[in-house]
Amino acid sequence: MIIVFGSTKGGVGKSTLSLALANYLTQEHRKKLRVLDLDFKQSLVDIAEKTKILEISPLYPINTKDTNPSELLKTSGAESTENIIVDLPCYLDAKVHYSFLRSADLICCPFAYDEFTVKATLLFALLVVKVNPLAPIVFIPNRIKKNIYIESKQEIEKVLSGFGRISPTLYDKIDFQRISNVHTPATLLSTLLPALDDLYETIMRKKN
């Protein structure tokens, strides 16, 4: 199964949530997977390098591989046993980016409720519908401040729900910066599990 994290806006938490989902699948559901970092910042690859320096065994490999999905699945023998989580860049300017988007079985799009991010999220949704109309899209409200009233929240969610599913909200916590390919801080579990459980039970369980 290929799971893609994408958005046309940076800073929405694609890379962090890629790790959070990877940790969840390996630890909670004993899934075999790899994470593919195609973002230009290569922040996930940097995390993997730090893990090597500390000589800690990672839960899964993180790498960057300039190949198309079919070749990656073929070389890994992963057609039915391995999940591949892909962190796409904001600017899709290479064939491999569109290839993974086109081959995705699930597309996750983190977003916030500010006007600029919502516009970028809608642009990404329109792109997904054109490139891969069959893949389910899950919009993940991320880094949301608690106890803040969002006037346009219902209207935004109504529009986004026309493209896909909206997951439970992930509230902003400083400990999100501590997620790695080794562990997820226990202080984040109460925030993460409702969204990750919903993602797994409603979509991933049916496809695995």
Give me the secondary-structure topology:
Elements: E1 2-5, H1 14-28, E2 32-37, H2 43-53, E3 62-63, H3 69-76, E4 82-87, H4 95-103, E5 106-111, H5 115-131, E6 137-141, H6 153-160, E7 165-166, H7 189-207
Parallel strand pairs: 1-4, 1-5, 2-3, 2-4, 5-6, 6-7
Give a structural overview.
There is one protein chain. With 208 residues, this protein is of the alpha/beta class. 42% of the residues lie in helices and 15% in strands. It has helices spanning 14-28, 43-53, 69-76, 95-103, 115-131, 153-160, 189-207; strands spanning 2-5, 32-37, 62-63, 82-87, 106-111, 137-141, 165-166. The protein has a seven-stranded parallel beta sheet with strand order 3-2-4-1-5-6-7, with helices on both faces.
Taking Cα atoms only, what radius of gyration do you get, to the nearest Å? 16 Å
> For the terminal residues, how far apart are their CA atoms?
7 Å
Main-sheet strand order equals: 3-2-4-1-5-6-7
Largest sheet: 7 strands, parallel
Structural class: alpha/beta
- Along the chain, the helix and strand elements come as EHEHEHEHEHEHEH
A few lines on this structure:
The chain has 208 residues and is α/β, with parallel strands linked by helices. 42% of the residues lie in helices and 15% in strands.
